[in-house]
Amino acid sequence: MPNRRYHIHVICVAHSQPLILDSLAVFFQSRAFLTYDLSTHLAQSALYGRQCVDACDYVLMVIGDSYGAVQNTGFSQMHLSYFNAKARVKPMMTLIKRHYDPDEVSESLKAFIRMVEQKKNQVHYYDDNTDIKQLLSSMHANMIEKSNLAAGWINARDLVSKTAANTRGNLNPQASRLANARHQTSNSFEASDSVTTTIELNESFDIEYSAQAYEDGNLTDVMMTMSITWQNILFALGEMPAFFSSYGLQSQFNRLIAPKAEGDIKRLMPKVHAVARCQIIKSDLDKLQRLLIAANWIQIKSSGSEIRSTKELWSLTFYAKKLLAENKTSNNNRQKSSTQD
Question: How many C-alpha atoms does 206 have within 13 Å on its Cβ side?
Fold first, then answer.
């Protein structure tokens, strides 16, 4: 629909290829919201890039004449953003400038281009004679058609007009889902005996976490993502005491992700010898806690007349304990069967 827009993050070397980047801004002005990788001179540029990649609908990478400044990780910001986009399995299109004189291209850029070309990316090439507008038009249409993107953002005024035009009781499905989500969030910390969100234990979901990586005596702040299953979460809850605080819940989930986080970071940064302080970001942790409440896995235990904000404790519900016992029994039976075979 013409009034819908997508969030596209542009992976690039900041301030390189300005004509191409300006052409993107003009073409997508009515089609998308663009964010760009920033200059590495800014302390928060890496964090900003990761957050934009995580939030966007799809990624557009522009590879021009420069690989970019190499960070203490051994990679440029463009390379790190590419890693993050691949880890998040973001739909990606790539624009690569044709270089007719190989001597004008650095070895690091050549290696990066070879790696990108070998992966399953939508790669397109351009030079000074390319009709960028026409190329972007076909690329964008192809991405929307083949990548099963969400509906995109719609202007609030358009949404209000559309909702008002519906007959009473025939609410826009998107608006209805948003209303339900808001209602669920506003009541998320009230104890409930019912399940308002059904969780499939084998289903996986992504969380974002921060960590500190140590390499040759240097400390690097890292932000990455990983996938975990709801069964992992259930078993982690089973190791909690009868009553626990939100801080205790946070600490348990951080312990849960730490081993995999260390392995993922060392694969990305082979020279790293130690990883510490693996922590799920606050927004993902809060979202996870709300879902656990909605699924009737945890419930709040008030401390009588004590002040709730300082004495708030949680416990597993009867439903969660039953689910945990059933899954432990099922796992034990599978292990016994495997041993006998």
Answer: 10
